[in-house]
Amino acid sequence: MTIGLAGKPNAGKSTVFKAATLADVEIANYPFTTINANHGVTYVQAECPCKEKEKTCGKCVDGIRFVPIDIIDVAGLVPDACKGRGLGNTFLDELRQAQAIIHVVDASGGTDAEGNPVEIGDHDPLEDVAFLNREMTMWLYGILERNWVKLSRKIQAEGLKLEIVISEQLAGAGINESHINAALIETGLARVDHIKWTEEDMIRLCDSMREISKPLLIAANKADIAPGENLKKLKELDRIVVPTSAAAELALKSAAKNGIIKYTPGNEDFEVLTEDLTKAQKKGLEAIQKVVERLGTTGVQECINRTVFELLDLIVVYPVEDEGKWSDKLGNMLPDAYLMKRGSNCHDLAYQIHTEIGDRFLYAVDARTRLRLGEKHELKNGDVIKIVSTAK
Question: Rounded to two decimals, what is the model's pTM?
């Protein structure tokens, strides 16, 4: 699973990426610091089931399991990128592999539409939210419209299924038949009248497909210096909006990595481990403490958690081979944590572990209750499950 970091240049995407991954990326106060997409691994947090046992699994921190996911920081997007401005569709093409998007917005209003520094509060961050959605919609429209006249006639002449033809045209953008079906229902566009669809109809369809296929959360970055009115306006949007200070998170992660503090990402506090600090370090940590107290957290981990568990509606399931010890055959307790779509069943889990195990599935066992479960049994978040199959 991949989360994409999107937004205009200089909004703080690379800082969010570095804070989430501790990868070595360039960060600078000017547009297009990122030219080629940065790929990395970050972690979503889940409560570890080992808290229910006398023995800990050794794979969690204070009862919190960190489940790895892929994250991609793409080049900044400027208005009319879909027409080739800035780095153009390079940005949009990189996002095709993302299942969800964290839109990093400069909530401080300290950068203009193209990412150039201005006075704090001079730019309205709501404009950035609208323009990103528009650019992504028009990117999809550009791909679909390219051959639409020819395709629509072919659908009509040969009796082809509309959803299949559109999904083939937009496959490179990560759009599938289920996304298209849902968008057709939402927009009320009639399949039989596709030959009569106007440009406005097709843009509406693409807008709906974008929302469905690439659900989006807003990281209101630079919240520590943002005018209160900007944060208020962003929070009033009909979206998940998380006040964020990526710079504070990066500083805390770096300090923890160097043994200066003890800090678990997403926590509301941190512990200073040494008195051997310079005046600048003390002052910096005190300033960050005030930011965290005001915002609740730095917001970076909350963005990741809420994207996975709310936007994508995923759950964490722990497959084991020994239902008594909750371990694999080597005795490793809770060796794996799988992210799965809510509503998945035991047979789905078997296939996710290995195709052969799915093909030769017999039944599953709930490791907590020791009850046998059928293939259609719906899994719950935090389930510990043994899969029984005839696979060797």
Answer: 0.89
